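Quick one: co-fold with adenosine-5'-triphosphate.
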Amino acid sequence: MYIVFEGIDGAGKSTQIQLLKEWLEDNGLEVETMVEPTDSEVGKLIRKILQRPDATTDSVQKTLGLLFAADRMLIMDKLSDDKKVIISDRSFISSLAYQEPADWISVLNKYAKKPDLLLLLDLDVKTSVSRTSGEDTFENEEFLTNVKSNYLDLVKDFNHEIIDANNGINKVSSDIKKAVASHVGLCRDCIL
Ligand SMILES: Nc1ncnc2c1ncn2[C@@H]1O[C@H](COP(=O)(O)OP(=O)(O)OP(=O)(O)O)[C@@H](O)[C@H]1O
Ligand SMILES: Cc1cn([C@H]2C[C@H](O)[C@@H](COP(=O)(O)O)O2)c(=O)[nH]c1=O
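Sure, here it is.
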């Protein structure tokens, strides 16, 4: 089972992945978490580029599209372990939302694994910016407004749930557990 968390910066992905992992493990399931970009040499280069003032320009965005695709290919084999629940903080769907043009990004990620379940944490853009450090050039209202719009368009192509990430942590966690329960054989109605 490959579950992917997506959403704009500061949406609560890391927070919610940890809560979901604990809940699934408490219910006897084996869980492994992944994150993109990874901590590989490619991932480290990506994080440097994300802080460049020209990160949102067409040429740098095309470079990032290539680097993100290469970075995720390094972990592709790990995503297909059917004996456990793989929960990833981001995926190639982030590339479709953050980088453009989508047709080229789709070609670059032709061999990327598609999630069994995509959870989009949908957050107000102003709240997103208020929660982030501003170190990454992407972390601005204009850019993230477009990313949010892209996400809401492209999730329709996947088995997905849209989670209102503007709620408190516990409410968001409860909504996520209810969305996941039936996919992993757990009782949805048992969740408060
Ligand atoms: N539902 C929530 N309500 C209020 N604050 C939250 C909520 N969820 C997360 N936060 C806070 O928002 C910040 C970002 O959370 P988190 O790191 O989980 O988001 P993220 O989506 O992983 O961010 P990024 O994509 O930038 O890595 C943290 O300070 C976290 O404590
Ligand atoms: C996988 C991926 C990520 N990004 C962007 C999204 C964020 O602004 C940064 C770093 O991610 P984090 O969750 O804040 O650690 O990278 C992207 O533009 N394209 C991608 O494919």
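If it helps, The chain has a mean pLDDT of 95.
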